[in-house]
Amino acid sequence: MWHTRGVPQLPYEYAIGLRYTRSGRRSGRRNRFISFISGLSAAGIMLGVAALIIVLSVMNGFQKEVRDRMLSVLSHVEVFGANAPLTDWPRVVQEAKRNQRVLAGAPYVAGQAMITHGDGVRGVLVRGVDPAFEPGVAEFTKTLASGSIGALKPGEFGLVIGREMARQLGVDIGDRLALLAPQGTMTPAGLVPRLRQFTVVGLFDSGHYEYDSALALMHLEDAQRLFRVDGVTGVRLRTDDMQRAPQIAQDLARSLSGDFLVRDWSRENRTWFAAVQVEKRMMFIILTLIIAVAAFNLVSMLVMTVTDKQADIAILRTLGAEPGAIMRIFIVQGAMIGWLGTAAGVLLGLLVALNIGAVVGGLERLFGFQVLPPGVYFINYLPSDVHSADVVFIGVVAFVLSLAATLYPSWRASRVRPAEALRYE
Known about the structure:
With about 425 residues, the chain is of the alpha+beta class. About 50% of the residues lie in helices and about 20% in strands. The protein is built from 15 helices and 12 strands. It has helices at about 10-25, 30-70, 90-95, 165-170, 210, 220-225, 245-255, 265-270, 270-310, 310-320, 325-355, 355-365, 390-405, 405-415, 420, and strands at about 5, 5-10, 75-80, 100-115, 120-130, 145, 160, 175-185, 190-205, 215-220, 235-240, 260-265. Helix 9 packs parallel to helix 13 (about 390-405). It is elongated. The model is unreliable at about 1-10 (pLDDT under 50).
């Protein structure tokens, strides 16, 4: 231990390691070159850590944005009959609400049809809803772009469609559409599809292209007549926490009395979420390689430092320093550089990720281009969602890689023979 005026200081190997970290600034050309390599290593680690935090935060933001817009149309949990339509859906909703995490429920009838207007023809997903219950489980129905969900009246055959579908078909509120259901009528001429005229009474804009271009809402009773359903397809449930929907669905599957199938939103969109997770893992691996390259620059820097400091090492050995102490000197030097690069990268990454909108906006004004044109993407800004667990994990990985890069040069330093090192001094 070193002492100054009776105050205990750091062990000598740690003090020397910290001194070597900054010694290159005041001595010869070789030391200045070593200091330059150290700075490059720290800068590389900083940029790699910052890039990884920013990219993962943006990917998390996109996933959250798409998920939230998707769940404004989809339900958190669905309950439907295993072999037949539900005929007593109020009882199912009442039983489901016994679970304190279930906030609301609404019946629905699902089907597929062809919709025509003029020369335009397209397939649609039809959802029969009850306007009194649907706003409790579908956020987008509370404030439609035009019209209201309450305009759906039984027997009036009204239709609420997405803005994108209305644009593609060239229709607006008040226009009439023809809907062809696959459940047809058998005649001497063969199977004739059922054809019904509907009037557009509302337009919605969920922000998700898939649903805005392919989903059509009608009154529950009209859907029952159109698809000849005795009862409802199922019940849509809203929970207090969509992240816990899989667990809530499992609880409902055990508690509901009857032969029901229960499905949560994550299972309904399993392929999409699995693809996003794979993409995130691959991006993490690719960007971690950047950090690894920068961390292993420490190897060359420490090897040069060991070669330059052989005389100092030999003197310390002759004064009684153990090989382990010599190793700790250079481990401390490399770890300090790695820690500085990691800390700076975390700060830079958080600063950019938390202000990504302002950063992208400045770049767009500076270079005169738009990163996400609204005509191509369903959002025109870069979302960001910083997860503290990701930041901590990235920081730990970067520091561990930096620490691993110090082991071989430190071991080489501990193997220096004092007699050979001092022979030509």
